[in-house]
């Protein structure tokens, strides 16, 4: 049953005068009622956010950090007023040093403070670009890595490979091509790995120097629990230590040498677990393991 009341009211949202039929009515329309509800919700959220901010300010996290002799990465970022990736860049560049304790790195607050006791004059160091002197022709890239012409140009465009045209031939930067295909090597093909502690013991390198070399040479790495591992073969090669280059057959070379079909070669590879790798689209199998399999028996 409708109410017989006619009450003059002012809308709580827009302030316009209207006639209400209930004493509890506060808005002149459904639209104003919805907008008033949203406004009150926003005000409640703002109030809660301000209360949380006031609480954090009252806690004074910087004061607590200043009393600690060793800081985590997050605490160091808060102490310096920078982001976590920036702190990691300081560590890679050797500007800060850290010690791993369990799964976390700890940085001495004294080392952080010492950074600013002897400030250096700011100057932008211009990095001298090294000229590229080694090149592949398009044909050499296609034959070496077993890729198509269209795929090469697509990857070159995506990764901005340097190239020049000479006497009608396109020449590609050899370091950039080799670096790209080295990165695409699968981790399953790597048998031996270094931990950071083993590298420090063998080569006497700091953590920041290790990170720089891994980044510069694109050395494959993986994570085991909380610890990073680095490819032993790639690291030794980057440090100039002589390493044995493994020898491989391509499938056509194995077929020609042993007079077998492609299916027969793949049968022996699968049955006897012969090691194989993939370079681009070309599958290569271990030369030593295949030769040992078909070697004449000895008593």
The residue fraction in helices comes out at 40-55%
Number of strands: 14
Radius of gyration, in angstroms, nearest whole number: 34 Å
Strand content: 15-25%
The geometry reads as elongated
Concise structural overview:
With 299 residues, this protein is α+β, with helices and mostly antiparallel strands.
Task: Characterize the structure shown.
The chain has about 300 residues and is an alpha+beta fold. The protein is about 45% helix and about 20% strand. The chain is built from 14 helices and 14 strands. It has a three-stranded antiparallel sheet with strand order 3-5-4. Helix 3 (about 75-80) crosses helix 4 (about 85-90). The mean pLDDT is about 80.
Can you give keywords for this protein?
alpha+beta; three-stranded antiparallel β-sheet; 14 helices; 299 residues
Summarize the SSE layout with pairings.
Blueprint: E1 7-10, E2 17-20, H1 30-59, H2 61-66, E3 70-71, H3 73-80, H4 84-92, E4 99-101, E5 104-108, H5 109-114, E6 135-137, H6 138-145, H7 149-159, E7 163-166, E8 169-173, H8 174-183, E9 193-195, H9 196-203, H10 207-217, E10 221-224, E11 227-231, H11 232-238, E12 248-250, H12 251-258, H13 262-271, E13 276-279, E14 282-286, H14 287-293
Antiparallel strand pairs: 1-2, 3-5, 4-5, 6-8, 7-8, 9-11, 10-11, 12-14, 13-14
Helix pairs in contact: 3-4
């Amino acid at each position: 049953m409708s109410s017989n009341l006619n009450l003059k009211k002012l809308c709580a949202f827009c302030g316009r005068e209207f006639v209400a039929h209930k004493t509890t009515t506060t808005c002149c329309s459904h639209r104003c009622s919805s907008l008033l509800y949203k406004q009150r919700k926003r005000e409640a959220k703002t109030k809660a956010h301000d209360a949380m901010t006031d609480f954090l300010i009252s806690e004074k996290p910087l004061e607590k950090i200043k009393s600690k002799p060793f800081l985590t990465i997050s605490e160091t970022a808060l102490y310096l007023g920078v982001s976590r990736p920036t702190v990691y860049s300081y560590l890679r560049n050797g500007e800060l040093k850290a010690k791993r304790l369990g799964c976390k790195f700890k940085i001495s607050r004294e080392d952080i403070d010492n950074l600013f006791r002897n400030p250096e004059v700011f100057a932008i160091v211009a990095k001298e670009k090294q000229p590229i002197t080694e090149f592949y022709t398009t044909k050499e890239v296609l034959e070496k890595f077993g890729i198509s012409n269209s795929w090469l140009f697509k990857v070159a465009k995506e990764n901005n490979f340097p190239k020049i045209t000479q006497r009608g031939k396109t020449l590609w930067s050899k370091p950039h091509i080799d670096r790209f295909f080295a990165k695409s090597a699968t981790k399953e093909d790597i048998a031996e790995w270094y931990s950071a502690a083993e590298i420090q013991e063998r080569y006497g390198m700091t953590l920041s120097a290790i990170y720089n070399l891994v980044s510069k040479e694109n050395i494959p790495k993986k994570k085991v629990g909380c610890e990073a591992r680095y490819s032993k073969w790639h690291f030794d090669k980057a440090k100039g230590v002589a390493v044995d280059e493994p020898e491989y057959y391509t499938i056509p070379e194995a077929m020609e040498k042993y007079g077998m079909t492609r299916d027969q070669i793949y049968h022996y590879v699968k049955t006897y677990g012969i090691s194989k790798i993939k370079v681009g689209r070309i599958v290569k199998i271990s030369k030593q393991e295949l030769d040992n399999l078909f070697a004449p028996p000895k008593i």
